[in-house]
Design goal:
17 helices; 388 residues; mainly alpha
Length: 388
Amino acid sequence: MSRRVALLLFAVAWGTNHFVPLLLVYRASLALTPFDLGILFGVYAVGLLPGLLLGGPLSDRIGRRAVVLPASVVALAGTAILSFGGTGGFPVLLFGRLVVGLGSGATFSAGTAWVQDLARDAAPGTGARRAAVALSSGFGGGPLVTGVLAQWLPSPMRLPYGVQAALLTATIAATASVSRGAPSRAPARGPASPPMHRAPVFPPGFVREVLFVAPWVFVFPSVSFAVLPGLVREQVGPLRVVFAGLVTGLTLLSAVLIQPVLRPWMPRSAAAFGLAIGTAGLLFGAAAAAVARPIGVLLAAPLLGLGYGGCLIAGLRFVEANTTEATRGGLTGVFYAATYVGFASPLAIAAVAGRTGEVGGVLVAAALAAATLAWTLVDETLRQPREP
């Protein structure tokens, strides 16, 4: 049962990220500026945040399926709107991305909690790993397929949306058949639960161990597939669309492959791993852009993907270990909301680049990632003697 829900997460994640290689198509066809592309990339997060913050807690109260299915239909509607962006232009693309974000946010927070609920009898960390793999596979597989479709097949601004819509429709139908008897609803109130007992809004350590690290979950991949390909686009030439898809696919494939390795790790250790290798990826990517070497960007992409994967599994493992089914959706939504702050990183780097140059903006991001890693390691060292 949890695999069906994970497949739905995969399909929705596909729809959120396959837009990335199409940015270069829209730039050429609609004469959009880099700032326009940054807005299209980031407005998704504007719709996503309310979906994340409201969908998870709502699913704690009324059940996972009651939130996940309608939210995924909203995401499907966003895909349909985007398919008309080639003729409708920037306003249609902007609205479509906003709708996709709204539906995706609620699907991600409630759906991740649902996967974890359904995997409660499996080994610890199984639900978190399954959700992380589903999301990472969708985030990576979508751009890779779309890059191929848009590069070599007709209707590059419509065909990729039709493929994703067909996949999402099928997975919605499959998830709708999950039995109501599955543990997808919050536990009913009754004498078995202590009266008036509620878990704290943030479990101990959540802010210190999770929220400080969370934005890097999407800073690393956002830089990889929304910043670095543009810095070497002249060297890539006519293959720029499929190159962008390849970079995105490599980034997120590496995140998928690292999940089984990191599942047994403590959340803080996984976070430190992610920050360290993600920082290295930013430095490598900046060096590749400085010398205009596309092959260097391709080599930086897996490092940034490993950083993304480490930070993502760290947060999900913490949430899984420190919540019950009655509180998991809400805290999952807060974690995801914090991660999507990282989607603003291409705009932030573009703003910094006005003063430092484009490579300088990436180096500033690397310095901040290194500072977060130092904080994580120092905090762990200071608190270690107090732990039993």
